[in-house]
Structures are given as C-alpha cells and as structure tokens.
Amino acid sequence: MVKNGIELLHDVSELSKIKGQVGLLCHSASVNSKFDHSVNILKSIIGKRLIKIFGPQHGFVTDVQDNMIETRDFIHPYFQIPVYSLYGETRIPTDEMLEGIDTLVVDLQDVGTRVYTYISTLTLAMEKCATKGIKVVVLDRPNPVGGEIIEGTILEEEFRSFVGRYAMPQRHAMTMGEVGHFAKNNYNIDVEYDVIKMQNWKRSMTWYECDLPWVNPSPNLPTPEGSLVFVGTVLFEGTKLSEGRGSTRSLEVAGHPKIEPFKFVDHLQKVLGDIEGAILRPCTFHPMFQKHGGTTCGGVHIHPTNWKTFRPWRTAQLICREFRNELGADFEWQDAAYEYEYDKLAIDLINGTDKVRKWMERNGSSQELIDIEQQGYDAYQSMRDNALLYS
C-alpha cells in the first residue's frame, strides 16, 4: 500500500520539517488510508500550533460545484480555527491570512491535469510565502493518472491563466510535491520548500495500484476513472456541449440534445476505429443543472479499459471534432468568462493554445493533431526531470 505524506508525520524526522505556527491548505480528499482527515491528524500531533486552515477551489469542504462560484471565509464550528478561502475575493493568500504562520502545509489531492486549479493554488501560495519568509511543506499524494505518460499541448505564454500558469502539457505526470519543485526550480520562486514524500509509490502506478480510498477531490470527479477521462473531457467545458455536470457521471460523458447516441457512436467507430484502452458507449443523460440542464442529451460515455494504453486527451479532441462535424451550426464554443479570463475563449485557455481549436475548425487529420500535441515535449521533459522525486 502507498502511504501518503500525511501518514508519515509520526516520523520525527519528517515532522521536524514543519516548524512554528502552522497553516494547512486542504480539502475533503485530504484523508489517510482510514479516511481520517488531515486537520484531525495534524491537530492531534502539533496541537495548538495549527492556527489556520485554507481551502482551494470548491472550498475546504469541497461542496461548491462550478467555475467562478466563490467560497467564503469562516470560523470552523468544530475545530474553532479560521478557514480562509483561496477561491473567493482572492486566489492568493493575503498578508492578513498569513499573519502568524511560520509554515504553510499543503495537503491536496491533485488529479494530474494542468487545468485542475490546485496546482495553481499551490504555486501562487508559494510565491506569496516567498515574500513573507514562510516555509511551504507539501504532504505528497499520488498522481491518480500516473507519473510516466504526458499528454496534451504545452501551455503557451499567451494563454497563461488560473487554469495554466506554466509551460507544461495537460497531463503533466508529476505529483503535487513535484509540481512545487518544478515551479521553484524553473520559475525562480525563492521560497523555503520541502516535501514529505510518499512511501511505496512508483511512477508507473495507476490509482487502483495504490490501494488507497477515493474521495472526490472536487464535486464532479466521483470516480477514479473520471480523473483519467478528465484529461480529455475537460475540453468540453470550452464548448456548449454538456460534459455531464448535473448528472451522476460528470466528465465521463459528453453530449447534446440534438445528438442521437447510437448513430453518433457508430459514426465515431467508423471514423476513429477502435480506441486503444477504452470503449465508447452510446449514452443518454439528463443534466439537472448547468449546460442543457433539464434537457435530455445524447452522446458518448468513455469507459477506460486499460489505464496504461488509453490516451484520453487525443481521444476527446477527436470526439469533439466529430461533434462539431455532426452538429454543424448547432456546435458552439463557450464564449462566457472562464476562470476570471474575459477576453479569450475557454477552449484556448483549457488547451493552452489556439492551435487545437483551429485544427478542429479546419477539420484537421489525426496526424496533424499528434504533431500539434507533441510540440515542445523535449524542453518540458528537461524542465520536469530536475523536479522528480520518485522512480
């Protein structure tokens, strides 16, 4: 069994990395293998030294559904400790929030995708702590989609945002602790930084090989499979297709009221052939809220069958291209503000480039997509190598 960083704090040498008064950035998935929450664990070890709690997007209790729906600060009724939102009026800890803290401990379950905002919250906190002389310690956790395979386009500087701060691909193949090293080493964050590493985690591991419980890291990822498919299906947030929010299998499905699912999946199979490592199943779903809320949608449910061989990013881009071809004028890009960006299309922010959207709009080939995807991989691998903590 893999042991998370939080499970190793009883080791004196590891605990010694956490000095002075402590703030803890965490959420509902911050649990050990017995489902004990990190606040309880840390409080039992360091007592009154734990003085503040911080919550990322979706909140400390991970109950807020959507992008740009903010959470508030409050005094926790059980712990009697202030809980500060890093997805409210600010996404950067303020001087007031950090007052009295010597070490900021970060225990967040990431899902290995660049747009998942917890890595942005981590690195923004690192930058702020650097200006205050506050140490940052990450309690590391597995990357659910593994630490070897990279996928997706490299973020271009023009499309930098809260869903992408650094030149990394969509599937970055790092743990949260490694992302901190990546940012510190390559983007000159002069912060005292440490990681309490996991035990027994290997880069080749998928989530199910870790033998750890799954707790939703955000409201719309109820299953480990969802974290893998999300590498690709997050792109549907940049369209007016439903990605299943408001249904029970959000981000594993995609659809539209004008799609007949059996006809569409038959078309996908003819155009794309067999999808290595996954099965595309015709599905009908009825979102209760968000896009097409209250309307029945037809589309596709993506079922991974082999985590090692499935490539969700490329698969989802090709499926989206075919949605666009099938729907014609009824296919639309999402033009509303996305993660506090108002002048760029969400699809370009998600992909970190406009090249993929333009590829879709000209109905480009699969090989063209591969060529676009792999631009800059060698440089990224070089930047990533000096951040890796596990073999």
UniProtKB/TrEMBL annotation:
Q: Please report the stretch or stretches of sequence annotated as the Peptidoglycan beta-N-acetylmuramidase NamZ N-terminal domain.
A: 22-224
List the protein's name: DUF1343 domain-containing protein
Residue ranges annotated for the Peptidoglycan beta-N-acetylmuramidase NamZ C-terminal domain, each copy included: 228-390
Q: Which InterPro entries match?
A: NamZ, NamZ_C, NamZ_N
| Record GO terms (molecular function) | peptidoglycan beta-N-acetylmuramidase activity
